[in-house]
Amino acid sequence: MKQTIILGNIITVDEKRPFAKAAVVKNGVFSYIGSAEEAKKLAGADAKILDYGDNYIYPGFIESHCHGSFAGERAIGQANLMAAGLTNYPKYREIIKEFIEKNPQRDFYVAAGWVENEEYVDKSFLDEICSDKPVFMQTGGGHSMLLNTKAMEWAGVDAEYAKKWGYDLVHVDKNGEPDGYICEGPLFEIVPKLPTTVRDVKDYLLAWQEIAFSKGYTTVGDAGADVIHRIAPKAYYELQEEGKLKLRTYAWMYVTDNSDAKTEISRIAALRAEMSGEYFHIVGAKAFLDGVTEAHTGWQNQDYLDTPGYHGAERFNDHDKMVQLIAEADKEGMSVHVHSEGGGATHYMLGCIADAEKITGNKDQRNVLAHLHFVTDEDVRRMAETGSVAAVPPLWSPAVPGVYEQEITYVGKELADQAYPIKSFYDAGANVVFHSDYPVSPLLDIKLSFYSAETRTYPEGVLDGVTTSPRNLKESITREQSLRAMTINVARQFHQEHRLGSIEVDKIANMTVFDCDFLHDDIEKVAKANVVATIVDGEEVFKGN
Fold it and tell me: Which residues lie across from 253 on neighbouring strands?
């Protein structure tokens, strides 16, 4: 078997050998790490050589929480409102109109990336653009959506529907009729019903794979692989069988709010037995505990300042059912991954995990809490004590004008200024991983993750015409910690640290090459780093310019 020699400045994330100049790959795994001279001797004269010169080679970067088919759909199947900037309703209108004109054959239209502001819009906003076909306009965060009249008719959103879900989730006008705005549960019920074929989803996943490789990611965690497209597991499986899926994907399957644990875990275990393989592997269940603070649906520890008596939307909030879900998942060697944005949701979940551990005796299940906008000191400690994984978003830490002031209105300045802890989790001994939540959040960027984790802001130019400020600087972490949070720590989240996450003999030969030393270069240079190559199983899958 012909071997491959990889040459360059190799940062291994292996404490025993942190730096090397060469690696040898045989059958897709590392067979040697060390000097260039020894690598050439071992591999032989006919070895293939990938020489990256003075560039820096890292373990293949790993994204801990994203949404694969959704990312691909936003790339090739939807009107992208994120191109309009933060909040620009006239521009949204132009983008949707242009998308409709370019795609007259479609039976319905989806626009995504809407960022809400104080201006309230209803179905008439979309009816004026298109009145003869269903149109859905989804927020960038994916927790709120606006429907035109035709979309409401198609989805069955009427007065009875609004009454069933409640008027916090299905907004109504002064006559009690839905006005087109929905959020949380109704949205997650309606979106998966949009007609989509397995072929469509396979195209979305291949588009997503190209995006991930171009950004330097070799492995990802799909947090709710079937939450948008129920047929996504089948699409993943078919691509894997066809040899087209090379982006290793560890997936959690979506469970509905307060569902029966035994039924759901049995279903997920059956899917795992049928479809899991080397490049698509099902590892557990995904649940939503709450929504998001900006939509007034994050489950807080206290009431919203502008709405006394209301502390947010509680979704999967049945303590006993969550404890059972965790315990049933543990029986199958799986974990539970939750969307936990507000401090109340996190406090609830850590209590459930602690009680489940009294049943299972397992403090190494590695259940994941993602987003962690607001967390108390007590819950930071409990994250470590329960062996839970803290999936944090450094790219969300800056104070973004408009968004930051909205947070202050909702939860107060003191709490807003304590948002998105990272260092505290490290200090407490928790397993910390970075996530982007792409495409729910538009930034999927390794270099900016390093930058924001250290500076708690963005470099100029990231947000068009918007300058951010540092927030909660005491939660800044070191470059080494950031590197681990995007490599070996994420591998550990998947129980794959013996195969992925560092450059060591007998591990899978996944690597990412950058033109920057993330550990030592000036932070402003880090912000401008470029991907030179992405390598999976010892083969280049992306080559930069």
Answer: 285
CA distance 365 to 370: 16
Task: In whole angstroms, give the CA distance from residue 138 to residue 276.
Answer: 31
Residue 49: predicted pLDDT? 96
Residue 503 has pLDDT above 90, yes or no: yes
Measured distance CA(474)–CA(123) in Å, rounded: 44
Nearest to 454 by CA among 434, 470, 474, 476: 476
With vertex at residue 119, the alpha carbon angle to CA 115 and CA 121, rounded to the nearest 5 degrees, is 80
b/e burial code for range 7-21 (CB count within 10 A of at least 16 → b): bbbbbbbbeeeeebb
pLDDT 10s digits, 368-405: 999 999 999 999 999 999 999 999 999 999 999 988 99
Number of other CB atoms surrounding residue 269 within 10 Å? 19
CA–CA separation, 244 vs 241, rounded Å?
A: 8
Report pTM: 0.89
| Amino acid letter, 350 | L
285-296 pLDDT per residue, tens: 999 999 999 888
78: pLDDT strictly greater than 80: no
Spatial distance between the Cα atoms of 405 and 402, rounded to a whole number of angstroms: 5
CA-CA-CA-CA dihedral for 448, 216, 465, 141, to nearest 10: -90
Kindly calculate the radius of gyration of the chain based on its CA atoms and give it in whole angstroms: 23
Q: Which of 69, 66, 117 is nearest to 91 (CA)?
A: 117
Helix 319-331 to helix 343-360 angle, to the nearest 10 degrees?
A: 50
Average pLDDT, the chain: 94
Q: How far apart are CA 407 and CA 314, in angstroms?
A: 19
Cβ(471)–Cβ(101) below 8 Å: no
